[in-house]
Amino acid sequence: MTSSYDFDYFVIGAGSGGVRSARIAAGYGARVAVAEDRHLGGTCVNVGCVPKNLLVYAAHFAQDFEDAAGFGWSIGPTRHDWARLIANKNTEIQRLNGVYRRLLEGAGVTIVEGRARLVDAHTVAVGEERYTADKILIATGGWPELPDIPGAREHGITSNEAFYLERLPGRILIVGGGYIGVEFAGIFHGLGSRVSLSYRGPLFLRGFDQDVREALAEEMARSGVELLFKTTVERVEKAGDCLLAHMSDGQVIETDAVMFATGRKPNTDGLGLEEAGVRVDAAGAVIIDEDYRTTAANIYAVGDVTNRIALTPVAIAEGHALADTLFGNNPRRIDYENIPTAVFSLPPIGTVGLTEEEARRTLAGVDIYTSSFRPMRHTLSGRQEKTLMKLVVDRADGRVVGCHMVGPDAPEIIQGLAVAMVAGATKADFDRTMGIHPTAAEEFVTMRTKAPDPVPQDEVTDEAAQ
Known about the structure:
By secondary structure, this protein is α/β, with parallel strands linked by helices. It folds into three domains: 7-144 and 265-327, FAD/NAD(P)-binding domain (3-Layer(bba) Sandwich); 152-262, 3-Layer(bba) Sandwich (FAD/NAD(P)-binding domain), CATH 3.50.50.60; 341-445, FAD/NAD-linked reductase, C-terminal dimerisation domain (Enolase-like, domain 1). Helices cover 32% and strands 24% of the residues. It has helices at 16-27, 42-47, 49-68, 82-106, 152-155, 159-162, 179-190, 210-223, 273-276, 312-327, 356-362, 378-381, 410-422, 427-431, 462-465, and strands at 7-12, 32-36, 110-113, 116-120, 123-126, 129-138, 142-144, 156-157, 171-175, 194-199, 226-229, 233-239, 242-247, 252-255, 257-260, 264-266, 299-301, 341-343, 349-353, 366-373, 387-394, 400-406. The strands form five sheets. Strands 1, 2, 3, 4, 5, 6 and 17 form a seven-stranded mixed β-sheet that branches. Strands 8-15-9-10-11 form a five-stranded parallel β-sheet. 42% of the residues are buried. Residues 460-466 have low confidence and may be disordered.
């Protein structure tokens, strides 16, 4: 490919979507550059899914040590070294940064270090240097926000800072009820902190299946995490060596750290989008069409910066599809239905497809199958934790349209079921599949009893309503 531009493709942001798109485009022979002002790998590798799961693994050992006694193991006194965990985590992240660098350089991609800014639709400035490109991709991801309340910016932290705390807080208040909030609640609790989780709504994980939300709340409360629903922080102040969080319900929580997990915003500040003719919405997200094209004909965007589905695999798939379309003579889009996801809480959630609530709103008839049981390992460990499994079935044709699980290995199990759902499997297909015994996963192919249909609201008696 030849043109009068310095590059055929200039990617702003070396996160998951940007790196994949750059590598694929370079593989097709395009002259590609990637600009990154922090660390290669973006949020996922540096302050997201990778380090978070390393901390989740660490947190789970507390339960494992306790459970071992029921299996005949004698475990002596244990002590966790937070500083060592963070140092080892940092070493692994640095290794992955190097892997990303080698992948890009091996594909022939030019790495430009620094904050990129659009000068016009075909020109990118990085520091004092300017680069021209035929096509440009914005893949700068998202960034955590601190709320606009007194003391939040002075005394609060986000998930970014949580990964680099010098010491484990003895007490921590986590504000927010999304993925990040519940995951860090499990991390800090498992490592020994006294954890309170505050959420403004009646139950966290809005948008997830109601049974899943309730099951996780029950297990987290059972484990000792303090759940504060229908309340949030109004102000934070310093009081000696601790912090005081003044809550909307009137209580004052004394804590050592306040972590805000109240949302992320598209990372578009200072990119020069207006100068290049790229429009954003009210939240600052880049507006794109079905082919990832922005309002500037030669500029595209993928991943969290578009504020659509903020998942690493989605960003990777979008970046790959865009490179195929632009440089591989293979125009394509990705399928956004049946995207599986996981919450690495303790216990974890795995889910794919429609929730029961979504199914009842959109389908004429729905059959629900649920199972709640104590995992086999806990018959000896003595732990009271339960696993929840749930199937949502379209009554019209028997297709399984939703699979949900709360319990050990839920993300691993749901990944396999997502393949079945994408292939259009029916409940009958599940039923005639042999289970692997003894496993928890076999429950998904042995559930036979349908849950009763909910009573229509206008048929609820006054007594039942009370």
